[in-house]
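Need residues for this backbone.
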């Protein structure tokens, strides 16, 4: 753009009455470069941009001023012209020819207003065509400008943005009053522009305040709430549902303490009333809260009252605060899911009202009625203030601005701001006047009050939270913090405020346990300021803080700082450490527990693999105490616990420092050898442990003796391939063995399993021994598993049969009764020996359903013999009963049901029980046996003489028969002690009126000896082998062969 020439004083310009020559003010005062420099002044252009008016749409507020200028001065054209570096823009224009009316801008080549901006004074041109400089200006040709009057639009800072100008198409002599009038209207335009600038600044401040509030709320990990003065919820953050299980929206309107435990409710309600009533500054209570699922949680409630600063006596607006779950402090509470937007400052500029007040009598003309007519109904309390301000404008001839309340249509006071200027009286009039504008500022006032309330809410929220919060701007200056931050870091406000970021960080790092590590973290945040981090900070005094670092962003996403939150989790960290110790240690002995032992063995094997060392360098010893139950039963559990502690001490002393000792549960312990160089090395440790635990323990003045059985396995055993387990009879791999071989087993579990198998092997060999694992143990375990599976399937498939061995009169050979014996006919294994499956059934508990089937089947068959056949009749049927069966609560009912279903008389049934079943639980056994005796069932002690053989229980229990064990019968002809013992048992039976039956009679010599001792009955291969039911029927129908004749073999097993 060509630089306009400076304006010389035109020869046709007129002087204005009462003032210097207006055109002379625009005489040349410098070069064209100076003219352009003033137009391009950066501060002026910045002020112009801050108004946000360039290229803006037309606005009625500016058009009113333009029309007023046209009306007051009587001109056809008036413009609000904003001049930047290259053009002039018409914010409002009336009367301009096309295309300029539509385009609303012209280049500077068409501008008179640029001279108003450059010289900062009004420009008065009566006839531009006669002006030496302006006569060639294109505005004369294109816009029809002849007479021109322009006054500057000046900001409070003195920056000239443009001009308000009046234009006529014919020559005109402008007066001083015209200049004053146009200047007054320009003041209104400038007031509107100033309000626009303030509104933009207020909006920016609002966005920053909202961003700060949201960033702080993000750091709060508790339930944030608001409640009214009556004590009802008005807002609840989503953490309320997490804490209580109740829906937030559904809870609104409910009493604050409705879910509080009844015992705590009155106390909390009184404290809340004191807070709202002003008797207390803060609310801080801990109470029990009932959740939706019925649980009780302890919560800490902190709250402050929010008061209306604009209301008399600061009436309470409500209460704001937080709820913290203190039941589960170890859990990390996340930031509030709902961010309440409390900063809603609605600064709306209502339309400007232009007014004029004649002053025929000076300031005395400012009456209440005249003010109400022009400024609206002024509030009675503010009328004196408004009158005084306007009177000052008249007397001091200064612009004034006054804010006042006015009465709205609904009776609620509103706010307005008036700007006024005193103007001299027009020609021929002896009185002056006031001209001005009024702006409705009700929305701005309310927004300011709301902003103050929001800031108060923010401050109250910051102070109510249990977290320490600090906000730092991008320049490293502290923007905001709460008291909790100072408490956590033991700082004073002086040490936080007015310090740079490096100084503050240095003070914080001094208290940390590892300042170098945290310094590196801070450097990473500086390198990536938009990142979010969470870290644990350990302090030198043992405290632990959870630190959350997040960027603070504006509504448009711009980052303006960082928010740091600190939560004291020291108690939670200590509790976690204690829980971790408890989870992996035995509370009684202090040794590591089973979980810790399992993990340590797993890591040892993995380390051996990583270091490429043989797994055999890792060995596991599992040990059980021998006789510990007896110590517990005889001395009590307190002595038992002391014994376990003493055993733990001896184990630690008997092992090496590198060995890992653990209590696995009960009286079971484990030892891990991570440096077992060879097998003798592991054996030496096992021998030392056996010897150490074999020594007596002195507990409370008593000597207690226990021992230990140990099984150990080396890590190399888990690498051996599983050998196929062959069935002893058919040489086929069993289904259970095949499944186990194909299933993957973790090395640690395999090693512990192998050691456990060795432990069972040691126990089988006798107490106080150790045994090492070898693959045959695993094979035996797999075979046992296969047999157990087959046993269960056999019960389901009815693979069991009963056979019966006659019991005869030793004098006559006549059958007196039979003993029912069970046989298992497996489809692949054939007939399985009772000595193979009976102990397994006892151990697994399968003896209970098996024994029930034997009893029911025997009773069904025995009912026929009880009634008698065509031949001889039997006197009784005996059925063996295990200790597990006798211990079943419904055993008597089971016997009763079997007798009732079969119709067999109770007196025909003899139940055989072992001595151990009676002696181990004497009270229970006595109850059961007496109930059976009451049914009419007879009872026999089986294998008498091999167990406890106590005379007291023979006298105590209702026994009918003693069965002499086969081991005595085998030696009855040898003489000496066995013969004497057999004779004594027979004599004892006679003395107690008990019938004696000799088992396993196999020779005529044994028969003769027993007859000589007075034994009345017996059974064995000498008389008959076990027979099926049909064979028994045949036996009863035919006479028995004489005693000593060979018995028929119908069974193949020797059960006598």
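Answer:
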């Amino acid at each position: 753009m060509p630089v306009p020439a400076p304006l010389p004083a035109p020869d046709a310009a007129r002087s204005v009455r009462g003032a210097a020559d207006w055109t002379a003010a625009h005489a040349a005062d410098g070069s064209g470069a100076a003219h352009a420099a003033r137009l391009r002044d950066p501060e002026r252009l910045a002020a112009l941009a801050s108004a946000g008016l360039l290229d803006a749409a037309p606005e009625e507020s500016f058009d009113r001023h333009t029309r007023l200028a046209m009306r007051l001065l009587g001109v056809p054209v008036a413009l609000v012209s904003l001049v930047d570096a290259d053009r002039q823009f018409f914010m409002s224009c009336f009367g301009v020819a096309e295309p300029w009316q539509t385009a609303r801008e012209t280049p500077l080549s068409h501008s008179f207003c640029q001279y108003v901006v450059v010289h900062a004074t009004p420009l008065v041109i009566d006839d531009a065509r006669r002006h030496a400089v302006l006569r060639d200006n294109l505005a004369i040709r294109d816009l029809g400008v002849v007479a021109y009057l322009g006054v500057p639009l000046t900001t409070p800072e003195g920056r000239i943005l443009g001009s308000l100008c009046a234009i006529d198409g014919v020559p005109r002599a402008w007066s001083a009053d015209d200049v004053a009038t146009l200047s007054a209207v320009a003041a209104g335009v400038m007031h509107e522009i100033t309000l626009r600038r303030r509104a933009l600044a207020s909006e920016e401040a609002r966005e920053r305040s909202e961003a700060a509030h949201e960033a702080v709320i993000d750091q709060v990990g508790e339930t944030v709430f608001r409640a009214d003065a009556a004590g009802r919820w008005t807002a609840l953050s989503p953490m309320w549902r997490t804490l209580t299980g109740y829906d937030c929206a559904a809870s609104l309107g409910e009493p604050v303490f409705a879910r509080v435990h009844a015992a705590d409710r009155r106390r909390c309600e009184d404290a809340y009333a004191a807070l709202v009533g002003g008797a207390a500054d803060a609310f801080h209570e801990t109470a029990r809260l009932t959740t939706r699922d019925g649980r009780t949680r302890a919560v800490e409630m902190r709250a402050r009252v929010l008061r209306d600063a604009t209301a008399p006596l600061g009436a309470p607006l409500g209460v704001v605060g937080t709820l913290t779950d203190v039941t589960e402090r170890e859990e990390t509470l996340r930031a509030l899911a709902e961010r309440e937007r409390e900063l809603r400052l609605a600064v709306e500029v209502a339309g400007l009202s232009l007014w004029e007040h004649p002053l025929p009598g000076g300031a005395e003309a400012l009456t209440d009625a005249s003010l109400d007519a022009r400024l609206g109904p002024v509030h009675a309390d503010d009328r004196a203030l408004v009158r005084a301000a306007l009177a000052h404008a008249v007397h001091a001839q200064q612009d004034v601005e006054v804010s006042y309340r006015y009465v709205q249509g609904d009776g609620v006071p509103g706010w307005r701001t008036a700007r006024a200027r005193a103007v001299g009286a027009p020609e021929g009039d002896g009185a002056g006047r006031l001209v001005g504008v009024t702006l409705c500022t009700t929305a701005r006032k309310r927004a300011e009050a709301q902003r103050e309330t929001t800031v108060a809410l923010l401050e109250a929220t910051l102070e109510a939270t249990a977290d320490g919060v600090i906000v730092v701007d991008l320049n490293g200056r502290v923007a905001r913090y709460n008291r909790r931050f100072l408490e956590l870091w033991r700082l004073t406000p002086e040490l936080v405020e007015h310090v740079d970021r490096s100084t503050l960080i240095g003070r914080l790092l001094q208290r940390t346990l590892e300042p170098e590590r945290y310094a590196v973290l801070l450097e990473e945040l500086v390198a990536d300021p938009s990142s979010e981090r969470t870290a644990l900070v350990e302090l030198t005094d043992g405290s632990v803080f959870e630190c959350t670092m997040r960027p603070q962003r504006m509504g448009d996403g711009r980052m303006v700082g960082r928010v740091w939150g600190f939560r004291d989790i020291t108690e939670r960290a200590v509790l976690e450490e204690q829980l971790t110790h408890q989870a992996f240690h035995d509370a009684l002995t202090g040794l590591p527990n089973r979980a810790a032992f399992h993990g340590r063995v797993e890591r040892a094997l993995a380390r051996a693999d990583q270091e490429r060392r043989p797994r055999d360098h890792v060995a596991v010893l599992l040990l059980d105490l021998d006789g510990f139950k007896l110590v517990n039963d005889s001395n009590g559990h307190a002595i038992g616990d002391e014994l376990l502690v003493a055993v733990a001490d001896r184990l630690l002393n008997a092992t090496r420092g590198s060995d890992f000792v653990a209590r696995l549960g009960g009286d079971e312990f484990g030892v891990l050898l991570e440096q077992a160089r060879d097998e003798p090395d592991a054996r030496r440790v096992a021998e030392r442990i056996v010897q150490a635990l074999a020594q007596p323990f002195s507990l409370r003045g008593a000597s207690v003796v226990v021992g230990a059985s140990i099984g150990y396995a080396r890590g190399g055993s888990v690498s051996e391939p599983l050998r196929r387990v062959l069935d002893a009879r058919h040489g086929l791999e069993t289904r259970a063995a095949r499944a186990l071989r194909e299933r993957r087993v973790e090395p640690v579990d395999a090693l512990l399993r192998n050691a456990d198998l060795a432990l069972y092997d040691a126990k089988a060999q006798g107490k106080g021994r150790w045994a090492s694992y070898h693959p045959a143990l695993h094979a035996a375990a797999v075979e046992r598993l296969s047999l157990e599976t087959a046993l269960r399937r056999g019960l389901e498939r009815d693979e069991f049969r009963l056979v019966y061995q006659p019991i005869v009169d030793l004098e006559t050979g006549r059958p007196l009764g039979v003993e029912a014996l069970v046989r298992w006919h497996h489809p692949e294994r054939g007939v399985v020996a009772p000595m193979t499956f009976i102990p397994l059934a006892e151990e697994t508990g399968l003896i209970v359903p098996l024994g029930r089937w034997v009893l029911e089947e025997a009773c069904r068959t025995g009912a026929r013999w009880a009634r008698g056949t065509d031949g001889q009749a039997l006197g009784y049927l005996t059925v063996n009963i295990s200790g597990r069966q006798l211990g079943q609560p419904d055993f008597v009912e089971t016997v009763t049901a079997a007798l009732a279903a079969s119709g067999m008389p109770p007196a025909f049934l003899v139940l055989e029980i072992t001595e151990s079943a009676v002696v181990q639980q004497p009270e229970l056994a006595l109850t059961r046996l007496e109930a059976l005796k009451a049914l009419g069932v007879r009872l026999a002690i089986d294998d008498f003489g091999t167990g406890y053989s106590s005379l007291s229980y023979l006298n105590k229990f209702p026994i009918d028969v003693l069965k002499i064990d086969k081991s005595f019968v085998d030696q009855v002809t040898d003489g000496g002690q066995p013969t004497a013992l057999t004779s004594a048992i027979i004599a004892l039976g006679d003395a107690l009126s008990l019938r004696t039956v000799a088992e396993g009679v196999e020779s005529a010599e044994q028969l003769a000896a027993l007859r000589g001792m007075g034994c009345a009955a017996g059974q064995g291969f000498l008389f008959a082998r076990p027979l099926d039911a049909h064979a028994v029927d045949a036996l009863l129908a035919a006479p028995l062969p004489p005693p000593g004749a060979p018995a028929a073999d119908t069974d193949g097993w020797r059960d006598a």
